[in-house]
Every structure is written in C-alpha cells, then in structure tokens.
Amino acid sequence: MGLVPEEAVKELQASMDQVEEPLKKTFQNVHQGYVTQTLVRFLKAREWNPSKAHKMLVDCLNWRVQNDIDNILSRPIIPPDLYRAVRDSQLIGLSGYSREGLPVFAIGAGLSTLDKASVHYYVQSHIQINEYRDRVILPSASKKHGRPITKCIKVLDMTGLKLSALNQIKLLTIISSIDDLNYPEKTETYYVVNTPYIFSACWKVVKPLLQERTKRKVQVLPGCGREELLKIMDYSSLPHFCKKEGSGSSKHSGRGSENCYSLDHPFHQQLYSYINQQARLRESVEPIKQGSFHVDFPEPPAEGEEASIAKTLESELQKFHNGNGVSDLKIIDD
C-alpha cells in the first residue's frame, strides 16, 4: 500500500534535509520559500513515490549547479538584434492573471518558427522565462494574494500550423524534457485555441498516449476560446489572439503594448530590463560574453511517453503530407 501524500511529503522532506551545498543553495532558488509545495510538485511527477521524487529532485539540483542555472538571468542574449530575432520566432508572453492570481502565459505555437538562432539560444530563452516566472513573477503574485501561487496557466494558439514543424520536433522535445525533469507540475491548465482541423486529427491520435495527469490539464477550446477563458480571467488578461474571433496570434496584430509577444509589451520590457540589470551586477566579476549560454539538455529519449508522442506525431503528419498534400501544420508547443 502506497504512502498517503502527507507521509510522502514528510519522507521526502527528511531526505532533502540531508543535502549539502551547493545543492541546498540552488534548492532555495527552486522553492522560493514554498518548500512543501515544491516537494508536492516532484512527488506528483513521480506518482507520490518519495524515493523516485528524491532522485528526480536531486538530479534537478545537480543539473542546475552543473549548468549554472542560478546565474542564467544575468546572461543576456546579445546583440539586441539576435534577441529580437529569438523573440520574433519563439512567441511567448504574459498576458495577465487569472482571477485566482495565476499568471497567464500566451504561446504562439502555430507561428513560432524557431529557425532564427541555434538550439542553444532557444533553450536559453526558454529557461530564462521559466526562471523569471519562478523567481520573480510567482513570488510577486504570492505576496500580492497572501498565499502560495506556484503554478501558471498557458494558452496555446494553433493559428498558422505548418508542416515544417517536422523539423522542430527534436527542439520541442528537448524543451519539453527540460520542463518535465526540472520544472514539473508548473502548469495548472493548458488551453488550446484556434485549432485547425489537422490539429484536431493529430490530437485524437496523441491523446491516448498521454498520461492521465497530463490529459486532465489539456483543454481544447472552440474558436479563440474567449467565452471559456472569460470564466476564469478578466477581459484585460486575455491573450490578444483571444479577444477577437479569428484574430490569431500574428506577431503584428494589435499595438505593441497589447500584443504580449511584442518586445514593447510590459512583460518583455520588464524581463529584458531585469536580465540586463542582473548582467551589470555581474560585470564586476566577469565580462559579458557574446554567444549562447550553453545548457546540457537531455537527448530526446529513445523510449517512453515523449518519444512515443514525437514518433506518432511524425508518422501522422507524414501521412497527412503524403496523402492529402497538406502544407500547413505545426506542433503544440509547451
């Protein structure tokens, strides 16, 4: 008989109390004062098995130390033109907050081309947004609401899906693996909107391959999802592509301050300023170097849920391509 959650948390807490520096220090950047909630996230990711959750968490902490993740927010992507190219091809932004205080991240899965820089820059950018979310946005939201807020909501826009996504499966799998191994259970719900027929067809194939806890988090909404999303957030927090039916996630739609992908949006202005400010603080220790911040990332697994999903997607997309001549498809991006 398995341990009940409370007992599992206590056992994991006892084992984590034994870790020494530098793991203890980087663990502080992970839990941000919310130790129990962090232990619960890793336990959920390992089906409440304290031993497996302990290994996962220690592996995560070692990965952080070995890759200097604690300092990644002081390593800007330079020059600015390169950073803009990354932002224009990896569409993500913070559109607002749910009524419960959870940050709402918008992701332009359909129009993210991920082809303007090397894999390392996209991985660096993704981790920086994760770390900024976990170290700045979530603690601020927790303080504002007077309770722990440790998760976010993601709204994925499938406008503009393209078959060229086949070329990005490896990169998306790498990013997904980094999240699964080092940032588990950080997303409350994934809302998928503006889905073309071909996504719906692939979703029917992929859904049975997902774990139950993953499936429960994904909600495919009709149209732009506005009516459903307004049940959990105010109009002002809707991603720009949900405010008007058929508006899509065009990086050029709306004014800069409204388009949450734009560098003119407050979220990106604050993120950019924060990273550059942290970089200036480090300049006295070491000069800022051009080039990507190389992070060791897992090779896409040879077996398991992710590999099975990627393989099935590739197979199904190829069928659409060969059988129907379809040329507009892109994969869901987490």
The number of distinct helices, counting runs of at least 4 residues, comes to 12
**Spatial strand sequence of the major β-sheet:** 1-2-3-4-5
CATH top-level class of the largest domain: Alpha Beta
Total tally of structural domains: 2
The CATH architecture classification of the largest domain is: 3-Layer(aba) Sandwich
Taking all Cα atoms into account, the compactness measure Rg is: 20 Å
* Mean pLDDT across residues: 86
The CATH superfamily of the largest domain is identified as CRAL-TRIO lipid binding domain
What labels would you give this structure?
334 residues; alpha/beta; Helicase, Ruva Protein, domain 3; Phosphatidylinositol Transfer Protein Sec14p; 2 domains; five-stranded mixed β-sheet; 12 helices; 8% strand; globular; CRAL/TRIO_N_dom; CRAL/TRIO_N_dom_sf
Characterise this structure.
The chain has 334 residues and is of the alpha/beta class. It has two domains: 5-66, Helicase, Ruva Protein, domain 3 (Orthogonal Bundle), CATH 1.10.8; 72-278, Phosphatidylinositol Transfer Protein Sec14p (3-Layer(aba) Sandwich). The chain contains twelve helices and five strands. The chain has helices spanning 5-16, 23-31, 35-45, 50-66, 80-89, 119-145, 169-182, 197-206, 212-215, 226-229, 266-282, 305-324, and strands spanning 92-97, 103-107, 152-157, 187-193, 218-220. A five-stranded mixed sheet has the order 1-2-3-4-5. The two termini are 34 Å apart.
Task: Describe the secondary-structure layout.
Elements: H1 5-16, H2 23-31, H3 35-45, H4 50-66, H5 80-89, E1 92-97, E2 103-107, H6 119-145, E3 152-157, H7 169-182, E4 187-193, H8 197-206, H9 212-215, E5 218-220, H10 226-229, H11 266-282, H12 305-324
Parallel strand pairs: 2-3, 3-4, 4-5
Antiparallel strand pairs: 1-2
Helix pairs in contact: 1-3, 1-4, 2-4, 3-4, 7-12, 8-12
Protein name: CRAL-TRIO domain-containing protein
Domain CRAL-TRIO: 79-239
Pfam families: CRAL_TRIO, CRAL_TRIO_N
